[in-house]
Amino acid sequence: MVFIKYNSFEPDLYDMNIAVVTSHLNLQTGGGSNYSVTSIANQLSKRGNNVVLAPVELTSKNNISGFEFDVCEIGTTDNSNVKNMATVYSWIKNNSQFDIVYIYGPHFIPAGGLYRLRGGKTPIIGVLNSYFFCTNYEKMTNNCHKNCSIIKKASHSPRTGIQNILSTPYYFFNRFGFHQLCNMVDRILAISPAVKDRYVDIGIDEDIIEIVPLFYEQKIEHKFKKSNKDMYNILYVGRLEPFKNVDILLDAYEKSNIFNCQLDVVGDGTSYEFLRNKADSISKPINFHGYVEHSKIGGWYNQSDVFVHPTSLPEPFGRTVLESLQCNTVPIVSNIGAPPWIVGDSGVLFTPDNVDSLKDQIEKLSDPHERSNFLNKREEQLIKFSPKKFNESVGVLHSEIVK
Predict the structure, then answer these.
(1) CA dihedral 159, 162, 164, 168 (to 10 degrees)
(2) Segment 290-330, tens digit of pLDDT
(3) CA atoms of 210 and 248, how far apart (whole Å)
(4) Domain spanning 2-215+386-401: which CATH class is it, in words?
(5) Residue ranges matching CATH 3.40.50.2000 in the chain
(6) CA end-to-end span of the chain, whole Å?
(7) Does domain 218-384 have CATH number 3.40.50.2000?
(8) How much is the pTM?
(9) Which H or E element spans position 189?
(10) C-alpha–C-alpha distance, residues 342 and 319, integer Å
(11) Which helix (H) or strand (E) holds 113?
């Protein structure tokens, strides 16, 4: 390891061996977390470290060429969370060459905590990017985690019958053991205040959690010209699943008092056919584009005027919201979870699950002068989510935990 001064900030270490453990890597059809973990590994590599991204499951369709880090599959994902945590624990224990191990995602942080509890020497940094304590994300509400009993975990779980009964020990661990092992790791990074607050509520020590948000990537900047400058272009990007509330967006779009407009829906999922059928009954133009490679997604933002994030769930982050800001597209987000924090003063909020509230904001931003007011504030907001800001945070963190 080499000790250096990183820019004008605290001393930092580089030329370290760093592992980034994650549950899976699916860059073909996976969600935004797959791109987030590769972005983190890439940034750690650019700092002069030797980085290995270690997914428990590596999807064969991945194009992993061009990465600045190595990829090493450490096992095959099993339906048993206990077995998967044991796999991660054994891998960390048997790979003592690393100076730091990041565990991306809450599911395997307890394995890192157990490793440290049993005397393991390598510092462990957990990254909270989702809500492990919730057995069914689609049933999650803003404060349900504060009163989530074992019975509720079992009744909300998508597991049924004997499978649900056999999962009882897991529900007990989820409720009573998870936070205790998490408290054994050296530091935990929460990707938003919404995530930190909820994990502190369930028992993770507030003193070891730091808010280190995800960051934007320069390569998203693709400049596509609008084909019709007078057209009001509305965009949705994301998975098409019931909990994403894209049907609410379609209802608000239909009710809105705007006419020279177009809605583009980019993404795929189990609700695709349902939404297509619903759109057929709406007279205003709606175009479905299916799955689009992440490297090409910037063009859709750049030719749109507003981006709508309609979910009623307390999203832990919202990478698409950040991408819309980066590409000069004003975001309209539901007032729950992390998206309002990401948007700040550079976008507008609506009441979750409220068609009329969303309709009003869509109508409001049909005025170019209204949109320009928010676009003028985007650069200041984006500074909080820059790669430089991430580098500053982890630089200080590494100097604190590596002896």
Answers:
(1) -160
(2) 998 887 888 899 999 999 999 999 999 999 999 999 999 99
(3) 34
(4) alpha beta
(5) 2-215+386-401, 218-384
(6) 10
(7) yes
(8) 0.87
(9) strand 187-190
(10) 9
(11) helix 109-117
